[in-house]
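User: Please work through this fold.
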Amino acid sequence: MKHEIKWKPLAVSLAVPLAVGGLAAFLTRDGMKAFAALPKPPLTPPPWLFSAAWTLFYLSMGCACYLVWVSGASGARLERALTVYGLNLAVNFLWPILFFTMQAWLPAFLLLLALIVIAAVCALLFSCISRPAGRLLLPYLAWLVFAGYLNLGVYLLNR
């Protein structure tokens, strides 16, 4: 089945998570420099991989949002899914500030646990509207779990 791309919703859907991520990266740039000197747990990826991975995750979140937005879903279902998505982006924005800038590793870990739950609920709600949209969030969700391991490891190694 062929669908016509709705360019304005696609552009907005991609721009919002990229802007959230870009602003968070800008606000935490000094904290990331300090983070580089800390002991880290095994399996910590090289710094360049974080930027590349997050860019892909923000793009996939935007694509998922687009699919849900243009799905034709009912008002209440659509509103619920996009509200949880917005909450996901807000918590996603706060986590690096707490972790990198404030170096509040345990509170950041607890916030990340909440983010994992929110992202899982978002993926479920998106999946109920558009199965491909829900699936697009699964790599992001897996990365959040891995980030939880890294966050907890940094806390334990540097408290």
Observations:
- The chain has a mean pLDDT of 95.
- The domain at 7-158 is CATH 1.20.1260.100 (Ferritin).
- DSSP finds seven helices and no strands in the chain.
- The first helix runs from residue 7 to 27.
